[in-house]
Hints:
Helix content: under 10%
Radius of gyration: 30 Å
Strand order of the largest sheet: 1-4-7-8-6-5-3-2
Structural class: mainly beta
Number of strands: 20
Strand content: 25-35%
Low-confidence stretches: 1-7, 22-30, 131-135, 267-301
InterPro entries: Gly_rich_dom
Oligomer: single chain
Order of helices and strands: HEEEEEEEEEEEEEEEEEEHEE
Number of helices: 2
Protein name: Glycine-rich domain-containing protein
Amino acid sequence: MGINRNIDPESYDTGTALADDIAATLNYSVSLWLGHLTGVSGTNAITAGVAENTGFSALTDGALAVLVPAANNTGAVTLAVESGSPIAVKTSDGAALENGDLKAGRAIPIQYHGTSSAWRVLIEVPSQKVVANQSDVPPYSIYDEITASGTWTAPFDCFVRIWLFGGGASGRAGGATNSRGGGGAAVCIKDRYFMTAGQQLSLTIGLGGAGVSPTRDGNNGGDSTCTGPNGLNMSAGGGKGGNATNGVGGVATGGDLNYAGQTRTSSSPSGSNGLALKFTSNISRIGPFSSGMVNAVSSAGAPSGDSNAGTAGMAVIEYTTAIS
Length: 324
């Protein structure tokens, strides 16, 4: 008798036939249930066993289990059950797991798909919290201003927007007709970047180029960088010091939006400031999209006396309230 997983009692001629099919279906369902996997170990290459009372002998299409990871994963994951071959563990829609999708001690239901030879996680994981457009993201309501190199830690699961600014260059102190402003710093922006609680960003904040004495070229501003989970690698280049020809703007890479700093070529006696966006110091009060933005992160050239230092870089991290 074939196994009928969608039983319609009215389609049976006898009660015995109905009872037999119900019993076969129940036995089939029980055979798919592997229970909580035992002896789980590993971070990305996970191994586990099956409790003896399940009668497990080999993986069957549709097999169900509960996995309690021993560690947070840091990338794509495989699972080997009962010393079997490692099999990929994927999201419910078939994508590879990403850093932080599995949490140590947090039980997740998984099912084996024989046709694709992969385990599928049956609940949504953090990397699937991708939105189609900005209106689907909760408002960015919290802001941190970073002015020194270090790390930033996500306080909870949240979407993050990162603004990264390089350091402005100093202008050339070249005399009455030969001074140039320093190059403006680059700006790099990453939007709708999902982080789980405890994940960190590593930030390097570029210094402003030091001012110079007469007849000297300006100094470069420092590069600012930001790296993080899932391959995040942002760079906002510092401006180049003003010389007898120009002050070249910095270059940005790794963001969703990358803006080069302004290059200064003015031959006016005082040169002029290189331009790049920079927030005022009261960012936590006004938010990053108000009129609190100001220009000029590089210094002007100096027709007489020393040129001023360029403004140091910074980062602004906006984040949403907790994502459940």
